[in-house]
Design brief:
Elements (H helix, E strand, L loop, with lengths): L13 E3 L3 H10 L5 H8 E8 L2 E6 L2 E2 L4 E2 L7 H4 L30 E2 L7 E2 L2
Antiparallel strand pairs: 1-3, 2-3, 4-5, 6-7
The structure holds iron/sulfur cluster (2 copies).
The site of one iron/sulfur cluster has 9 residues, from loops.
């Protein structure tokens, strides 16, 4: 089974489909979502957008160690990444180019990277 290599690339930046205005609106409406209050409080939009995704910096990402400093506080969106209880490789999710979990897809599968154009698995 693939293990996270702790490269930190999925948090630097975090790519998310909703922009900051949408996040704020959704957080107001979906008050029982554990992700949105956390995102509103701790993620800062960089203004960068690629392939329909918005880039965020997270307060808890340590750029030096490239590790999350809020392991116990992480919301479900962080805890479940990348497969969220689905079979590894069974759904297309954004995986940075260096992400170890790209190995869960069959070779040649074109996988979104967030920052770059979607790239096939070697
Ligand atoms: S809480 Fe941790 S895992 Fe989640 S985005 Fe921030 S640094 Fe990454
Ligand atoms: S990009 Fe992939 S391998 Fe790197 S820290 Fe995130 S989940 Fe782990």
């Amino acid at each position: 089974m693939t293990e996270c290599s702790a490269c930190g690339d999925c948090c630097d930046p975090v790519w998310y489909p909703w922009g900051p205005a949408d996040v704020r609106q959704l957080a107001e409406r979906l008050v029982d979502s554990p992700d949105l209050p956390f995102i509103t409080e701790h993620w800062r939009a960089t203004g960068e957008q690629r392939n329909g995704m918005h880039a965020y910096e997270c307060d808890f990402f340590d750029a030096e160690s490239r590790l999350c400093t809020a392991h116990d506080l992480r919301p479900p969106i962080c805890r479940g990444y990348p497969w969220y209880s689905h079979e590894p490789g069974s759904r297309l999710v954004v995986l940075p180019l260096q992400c170890a979990f790209r190995a869960d897809y069959p070779p040649g599968t074109v996988v979104p990277t967030g920052e770059e154009e979607p790239q096939p698995v070697a």
